[in-house]
Amino acid sequence: MKRIMSIAVIGLGVTSPALAGNVTFEAPVETPIAAPAPIPAPLPDWGGAYIGGQLGYGQSELPLDTGEVDGDGIIGGIHAGYLWDFGTLVAGVEGNYDLAAIEFDDDSGEIDDVARLKLRVGADLGDALLYATAGAAYASASVGGADLSDDGIFGGIGLDYRITDAVTVGAELLRHDFSDFDGSGLDVEVDTLQARASLHF
Questions:
Q1: Which of 111, 192, 104 is nearest to 154 (CA)?
Q2: What are phi and psi of 182, to 5 degrees?
């Protein structure tokens, strides 16, 4: 009996290491969870209605029989319009009105006011809108003691910059042409450079 138990103990001693060598324990593998991709912030939308005001400087050229007369002075007023944002392209319409005090150097008269109906087409640059504009203009003037008024055309460029979701500031440079102003035979040109501020809805 003792012999049998001794053989059993020896057998267990021989087989146990072999069994132990075949048993392996693997640590659980943790699969890394990818962080969600950041959601890009939406680009500002220039679409919608707006109102505002503008103020700046105007310069005019008045050709007379005695030679060309220059005039300059302050010009400012109000504007309102609507824009459509098509992604990278922005287009819209605007109407504005300016009171002016653009006086000619020889005291022969002055430009009194200018109204415009504008088309605007520009590039959406995020917080900035760079645009070209053109349309019809109407102006009144006092020349040689007579009150004159006539329509014409204009074109120019501008830049608006968004400082809040609802407020933009900018600048605009325009060239106006009035041929045969009110039948006077005078071709009047008016250049304006104005700062603008607008409230968007």
A1: 192
A2: 55, 35
The strand pairing partners of 156, in sequence order, are 133, 174
pLDDT at residue number 7: 47
> In angstroms, rounded to a whole number, what is the distance separating the alpha carbons of residues 16 and 19?
5
Q: Which pair of structure tokens corresponds to residue 134?
A: 């053109």
Cβ proximity of 153 and 135 under 8 Å: yes
List pLDDT tens digits, range 135-173.
Answer: 999 999 987 788 999 999 999 999 999 999 999 999 999
Once rounded to an integer, what is the mean pLDDT over residues 126-131? 97
CB 168 within 8 A of CB 198: yes
Alpha carbon distance 82, 75 (integer Å): 23
Q: How far apart are alpha carbons 69 and 88 in whole angstroms?
A: 43
Which helix or strand (DSSP H or E) is residue 5 part of? helix 2-22
